[in-house]
Amino acid sequence: MKSIKSIIGILLGLFVLYLIIEFAWNFLHMQSCSSNLPPNPTCEQIAENNANNCKYVILRWKKVDYNKELKECKEWEAKEEK
């Protein structure tokens, strides 16, 4: 019975650690964006806008990557079309 409680305790501890790390990761990667997009923008326009007008709040040395934004937008578009 003691070993089951210790295993549950360890698993619960790992889950809490995971939640803390996930929160910290998301907090560090917060972005501040401004937008000047036309109605019904293309993925290229969205990616360019995000690359030029989004900045990381805490990790100021990181830049928003155009190619990554374009890939995410195209994946989202493909998912929405299904």
Question: Mind explaining what this structure looks like?
Answer:
The protein is mainly α. The chain has 3 helices and 2 strands, in the order H-E-H-E-H. It has helices at residues 2-28, 43-53, 66-81; strands at residues 31-33, 54-56. A two-stranded antiparallel ribbon has the order 1-2. Helix 2 runs antiparallel to helix 3. The termini are far apart. The model has no long low-confidence stretch (mean pLDDT 92).
Question: Structural class given helices, strands, pairing?
Answer: mainly alpha
Instruction: Order the strands across the largest sheet as they lie in space.
Output: 1-2
Strand coverage percent: 5-15%
Helix fraction, binned, reads: 55-70%
Return Rg in Å: 20 Å
Figure out the total of helices: 3
- 3D shape: elongated
The N- and C-terminal alpha carbons lie at a distance of: 50 Å
Helix/strand order: HEHEH
Residue stretches low in confidence (pLDDT < 50, at least 5 long) are none
Number of strands: 2
Main sheet attributes: strand count, strand direction, barrel closure: 2 strands, antiparallel
- The residue-averaged pLDDT reads 92
Summary keywords:
mainly alpha, two-stranded antiparallel sheet, elongated, 82 residues, 2 strands
